[in-house]
Amino acid sequence: MPVTRSKATVTDITLTQTVKVEKPRAARKAKVNGKIVSKASKGNRNIEHLFALAEVPKDLSLPSEFEAYHDSRFIEGVKHILSIDPTLYPVVVHSKFRAFSNEDKPIQSERDTILHYWYALISSVIGQQVSGSAAKAIESRFSSSFEGKPTPEKTLLKTDEELRAVGLSKMKAKYVRHISETFAQPGELTSLAFYSTPKEDVIKGLTQLMGIGEWSAKMFAVFTLRELDIFAFDDLGVARGVART
């Protein structure tokens, strides 16, 4: 039955507004390894709770779809990690890692590959100290501000005001300009041979760029160069996770 409440009173006349009282919605359900569990709202989803309920196979065998999707080297690394710490199983198989899929990558020219590396570093700078959604929005505005594909040369033609207009801070605009200057001229970082050197040398070389610290260089090595033997022990998230174990 509708419930009424007073909205406003003018002299002796009371105006009322009809308000519908809805029954609380039942909690949504999710199935985790055959078990029905309550699914928290989007803003309060407790992923750790779901992980805790996930069943880990005794032989640590990976789901067939997971193995089929990923590169064999990645799968080998995952199995090694799980053999050391099986509690990571639910976290690992929870989603796919696109950077390590076994899908055939289109063959690119050396120039296109170097441009890909440049843009990955620019994207890294954009994403520093902002939320994921903010970084995505800023990167979208940055990319859309060019006619055609973004390049270091086109970036250098932009004024600081234009770079700031897409959402970059004054310091990040400076970093983007410096990285673009480096990639706009022949040098160590614009040679594919450099990226085939030992990963320690690559990381050291990348940290010479303004705005690229050791953590950013390591993430570049992992997600852009697809290096597997990298561990960001200085990552704050990793440190906090280890401290909780």
UniProtKB/TrEMBL annotation:
One of its GO terms (molecular function) is alkylated DNA binding. It comes from Clavispora lusitaniae. The lineage of its organism: Eukaryota, Fungi, Dikarya, Ascomycota, Saccharomycotina. Keywords: DNA damage, DNA repair. Residues 122-244 form the HhH-GPD domain. The keyword DNA damage applies. The keyword DNA damage applies. GO terms for biological process: base-excision repair, AP site formation; DNA alkylation repair. Pfam families: HhH-GPD (PF00730). This is DNA-3-methyladenine glycosylase.
